[in-house]
Amino acid sequence: MGGPPGARVRDPGAFRAALGAPPPAPPGGGAGGGAGRPAGLACQSFASLSLDPPLVLLCVGRSSTSWPAVRAAGRFGVSILAEEQRAVCEALGRRGGEKFADVGWEASRHGAVHITGALATLDCALETVHEAGDHHLVTARVLALAARDGGAPLLYFRSDYATGAFA
């Protein structure tokens, strides 16, 4: 289901800078859903996996009601949230309802959902899904990446939100 063999992010240095040491942040992920509405979730874990080819790893709860729509799309966005986006993370993490009612977003050229104001956004193509306990272990190929200068990530540690500054 992934991108074409040998697909590369144009600037490996930008990939490394944006994902080289991501904090335990709760990234939001999303794809186009039915009837033109986005589908999205806050995943439990996220990490860069490979530079060549550019791959990321996500852990998504098996009980997620949004994951089936994101998975079916085959392509999705990952938005690494900024410290001021706690309400966005909470909205994407809740069960059911209209998660994007108060969340600013835009569709990327790949049809992925990007959260407005995120520190970084990635367009991804689904590679593999493995069952791992009560989660799905998901690998995805990065098709496009954008990161903004400045800002601190929203962190989630020991069942609470925090912020952090990194040099």
Global shape: globular
How do the strands line up in the largest sheet?
2-1-5-8-9-4-3
Return Rg in Å: 15 Å
Mean of residue pLDDT values:
83
General description of the model:
The structure is a single chain. Helix content is 14%, strand content 41%. The protein has 167 residues and is mainly β. It has a 7-stranded antiparallel sheet, with helices on both faces. It has a two-stranded antiparallel sheet with strand order 6-7. It is globular, with a radius of gyration of 15 Å. The N and C termini lie far apart (37 Å).
Brief overview:
The chain contains 3 helices and 11 strands; from the N terminus they run αββββαβαββββββ. It has helices at 12-19, 67-73, 86-93; strands at 28-32, 38-42, 45-50, 55-61, 75-80, 105-107, 113-115, 120-132, 135-147, 154-157, 160-163.
